[in-house]
Design brief:
single chain, about 350 residues, alpha+beta, Phosphorylase Kinase, domain 1, Transferase(Phosphotransferase), domain 1, 2 domains, two-stranded antiparallel ribbon, about 30% helix, binds adenosine-5'-diphosphate, binds magnesium ion, Protein_kinase_ATP_BS, nucleotide-binding, serine/threonine-protein kinase
Length: about 350
């Protein structure tokens, strides 16, 4: 396994690996080399097939990306970054097989037999606090590994976290299709997800616009810190905290107001279910100013404490005795409706 060094070293290594891989992507027809058992997943960019290798019988998860909608360079980048990161125990493994057929680019991944994290979120309920904490520790360790190598995942959401069991004893981060180096500039994005930080939501190119008002955004690990916090909220509650981080979203506006003047504004109702220690963690992860957000590994320092308050008959009682009644949208897959 090649060890990535500093940001500069790491980036040139990725570029070199892309260059070398581009010369050796083999041509094959999927059905000639693999028995396709079934489709096990589908995302915004590709499909994942459960296959067995025709000669060896090895089960694998093939990620296939249609050539019609995927640039060769993007495929190579995703494959090479996935390969470099795949040695971490909480990141999906790779077999080192990259190929192209007439219609697809593809690569072979370790088959993760459980479902993804989204599949076990009980709508409007979430998953148990113990399972959330097990997941939090493992994802924080995977992200620390990624960030130390000068990269930012950029697509942290439950659908990209794969489970080896239903209780989150072992989980693996997947999908490096949007991963970029620290300091890469984003000029615009075309849509938002609830996991996106406010500085990223400001980069949306709305219909009819030709350019974004905000200056280009430098990709930083703080984007993953924000998304990780939103993910923790979702799996603890079964709800999104908001739909998008801009002033068109009442739930986000309420939260942002509270962050700006915490002493005079009361904690937004959907956050009242959390203990003061848990809110301390969320406050450090969800700082509006990206440069002041904490690092992902700081989450580990909070897992020894209670996160969710005991529930009384009316719901969660906040510090001032108010009861949380308003609720935003239940979590839905970002794949649905796209
Ligand atoms: N190695 C794997 N083993 C089992 N299921 C997987 C594996 N990789 C991905 N999946 C499933 O396939 C879905 C889509 O894969 P993903 O890599 O996220 O594609 P996209 O880039 O299109 O989002 C995931 O949400 C997950 O449910
Ligand atoms: Mg995905």
């Amino acid at each position: 396994m090649i060890e990535l060094g500093s940001v500069e070293e790491g980036s040139s290594l990725i570029e070199e690996l892309i260059e070398l891989t581009s010369q050796s992507v083999c041509r094959l027809e999927i059905k000639e080399h693999f028995n396709i058992i079934k489709e096990i997943g589908r995302g915004k960019y590709g499909r994942v097939l459960l296959v067995t290798h025709r000669c060896k019988g090895t089960p694998m998860a093939l990620k296939v990306l249609p050539k019609a909608s995927t640039k060769l360079q993007c495929f190579l980048r995703e494959y090479c970054i996935s390969l470099l990161l795949s040695c971490h125990p909480c990141i999906v493994g790779l077999f080192g097989i990259a190929f192209q057929s007439n219609e697809h680019y593809g690569f072979a991944q370790e088959l993760v037999v459980g479902r993804d994290l989204f599949a076990i979120i009980q709508p409007r309920v979430g998953i148990s606090e113990c399972a959330v904490k097990r997941c939090a520790v493992q994802i924080s360790s995977a992200l620390e590994f990624i960030h130390q190598r000068g990269l930012v995942h950029r697509d942290i959401k439950p659908e990209n976290i794969l489970l080896l069991d239903n209780h989150c004893q072992r989980v693996k981060l997947a999908d490096f299709g949007l991963t970029q180096r620290h300091g890469t500039f984003i000029r615009y994005i075309s849509g938002t997800l609830p996991y996106m930080a406010p500085e990223l939501c400001a980069m949306v190119l709305e219909e009819g616009q030709t350019e974004v008002k905000a200056p280009p955004l430098s990709v930083q690990p703080s984007l993953d810190t924000w998304a990780f916090a939103v993910l923790l909220f979702c799996i603890l509650t079964g709800f999104f905290p908001w739909e998008r981080c801009d002033d068109s979203d009442d739930f986000y506006e309420e939260f942002a107001d509270w962050r700006r003047v915490p002493d005079t504004t009361s904690v937004p109702s959907q956050w009242k279910r959390f203990t003061p220690m848990c809110m301390e963690m969320f406050k450090r992860m969800l700082v509006l100013d990206a440069s002041e957000r904490c690092s992902v590994w700081e989450v580990k320092g909070y897992v020894g404490k209670d996160w969710v308050r005991a529930k009384d008959i009316n719901g969660w009682v906040g510090e001032n005795g108010e009861v949380g009644t308003r609720t935003p949208s239940p979590c839905r897959s970002s794949h649905s409706g796209e």
